[in-house]
Design a protein that fits this description.
The complex is a heterodimer of chains A (112) and B (115).
Chain A lengths: L4 E3 L2 E4 L5 E6 L6 E7 L6 E7 L2 E5 L6 E5 L5 E5 L8 E8 L7 E2 L3 E5 L1
Parallel strand pairs in A: 2-11
Antiparallel strand pairs in A: 1-3, 3-8, 4-5, 4-9, 5-6, 7-8, 9-10, 9-11
Chain B lengths: L2 E5 L2 E5 L4 E8 L6 E6 L5 E7 L5 E3 L5 E5 L4 E6 L8 E9 L6 E4 L3 E6 L1
Parallel strand pairs in B: 2-11
Antiparallel strand pairs in B: 1-3, 3-8, 4-5, 4-9, 6-7, 7-8, 9-10, 9-11
Classes of the chains: A mainly beta (112), B mainly beta (115).
């Protein structure tokens, strides 16, 4: 059973640029959630995708957007990067709602 | 909205000593509660989950947590700490607001185990 994989593991971008982070969900999982974990903080919910549709969003601006593909993999896109976007971005997959989340190891984004 | 508070951002214990990590929740309905562990440069691993089936929940690696509604607490314990338990621990509550299930995490407690 393949777990949740995220790419890239590390990324450095300049303020104002755009970034795409990728996530392959665990085999058999149809739900993907994205979380942002700033340094020294707990993860914060960005949004969730269920069967290719956005199924809930946290308190993040529209420049944070996402996609889920037919194979249930997912992308997180962030436009107009700001310094405060520097964080660990975690992807988690699950089988439907109300089932345990399986997290990937995250992508560490640094915005300079 | 649901929330959790973890008391103590850092906890230090000796190897073999009791581990107690504190978590209090705020929830308007019976909650689902979780403890996750995060090792350096890794994602989150589920330790245990409370879903109202039993107030004492046993998890992996010898950890357990007790749900106390009267105290709105869900503290994590382990009788005897091991060096490999050194990590950051997050308490979380499930929030179904808005139709999606999201986890609301505390700020975490970093556990140090001294030899």
């Amino acid at each position: 059973e393949t777990g949740v994989t995220q790419s890239p593991t590390h990324l450095i971008k300049t303020r104002g640029q755009q970034v795409t982070l990728r996530c392959s969900s665990q085999s058999g999982h149809n739900t993907v959630s994205w979380y942002q974990q700033a340094l020294g903080q707990g993860p914060q919910f960005i949004f969730q995708y269920y069967r290719e549709e956005e199924n809930g969003r946290g308190n993040f601006p529209p420049r944070f957007s996402g996609l889920q593909f037919p194979n249930y993999s997912s992308e997180l896109n962030v436009n107009a990067l700001e310094l405060d976007d520097s964080a660990l971005y975690l992807c988690a997959s699950s089988w439907g709602l109300n089932s345990p989340l399986h997290f990937g190891n995250g992508t560490r984004l640094t915005v300079t | 909205a649901q929330s959790v508070t973890q008391l103590g951002s850092h906890v230090s214990v000796s190897e073999g000593a009791l581990v107690l990590l504190r978590c209090n929740y705020s929830s308007s309905v019976p909650p689902y509660l979780f403890w996750y562990v995060q090792y350096p440069n890794q994602g989150l691993q589920l330790l245990l989950k409370y879903t109202s089936a039993a107030t004492l929940v046993k998890g992996i690696n010898g950890f357990e947590a007790e749900f106390k509604k009267s105290e709105t607490s869900f503290h994590l314990t382990k009788p005897s700490a091991h060096m490999s338990d050194a990590a950051e621990y997050f308490c979380a509550v499930s929030d179904l607001e808005g139709g999606s299930e999201k986890l609301v995490f505390g700020k975490g407690t970093k556990l140090t185990v001294n030899p």
